[in-house]
Design a protein that fits this description.
heterodimer, A: about 110 residues, mainly beta, 7-stranded mixed β-sheet, 11 strands, about 0% helix, B: about 120 residues, globular
Chain lengths: ~110, ~120
């Protein structure tokens, strides 16, 4: 079991640039989550997919953020255009379909927007 | 909406001693799950222990145990025989039983272990 794999581990970009974060969930997990962690707001859920379909995107901060899950083994979180206040650690997590199963987190992507 | 509160921003413990991290939560639901996650400097979120609200027995995982007080809405984590590798940020988290898996996290407690 390779765990949830996120890339890149670090991303530094300039304001206004497009940023794409990537996630490969654990094989067989049919739920995928994107969380953001900041000092001010802690850990916040951005969006949740079930069977590749976005179910709840109410946590996405604004239209500059978008997420896709084209298949069961890949998801992306895109920010266009990026702003300094988007600087944070972005986590992807996945879990199997049973309700009592816990989330498994990736190692996160640290995004710095200058 | 559910809220999770960790009132201790920082805690410290001597190696081999015992430490307890506090967590309280607010909910009107009767069925839910509670979790403690550990985040070491490597940044990965690691599940330490979980508790189902319908279970009266407190969960234990080796040196980690919880004191779950449902009426008081309290969910503390006890680490026995603390080790240097236990140093990390610890997050308490809540999830509704019927939800798809959305976790509500507390603010976190930084645990320092002194040799």
């Amino acid at each position: 079991d390779a765990g949830v794999i996120q890339s890149p581990r670090h991303e530094v970009t300039e304001m206004g640039q497009e940023v794409t974060l990537r996630c490969k969930p654990i094989s067989g997990h049919n739920s995928l989550f994107w969380y953001r962690q900041t000092m001010m707001r802690g850990l916040e859920l951005l969006i949740y997919f079930n069977n590749n379909v976005p179910i709840d995107d109410s946590g996405m901060p604004e239209d500059r953020f978008s997420a896709k899950m084209p298949n069961a083994s890949f998801s992306t979180l895109k920010i266009q255009p990026s702003e300094p206040r988007d600087s944070a650690v972005y986590f992807c997590a996945s879990r199997p379909g049973s309700y009592n199963s816990p989330l498994h987190f990736g190692n996160g992507t640290r995004l710095t927007v200058t | 909406a559910q809220t999770v509160t960790q009132s201790q921003p920082e805690m410290s413990v001597q190696e081999a001693e015992t430490v307890t991290l506090s967590c309280t939560y607010d909910t009107s639901e009767s069925d839910y799950y509670l979790f403690w996650y550990k985040q070491p400097p490597s940044r990965q979120m690691i599940l330490v222990i979980r508790q189902e609200a319908y279970k009266q027995q407190n969960a234990t995982e080796n040196r980690f145990s919880v004191n779950f007080q449902k009426a008081a809405k309290s969910f503390s984590l006890k680490i026995s025989d603390s080790q240097l590798g236990d140093a990390a940020m610890y997050f308490c988290a809540y999830r509704s039983a019927g939800s798809y898996g959305k976790l509500t996290f507390g603010q976190g407690t930084i645990l320092t272990v002194h040799p």
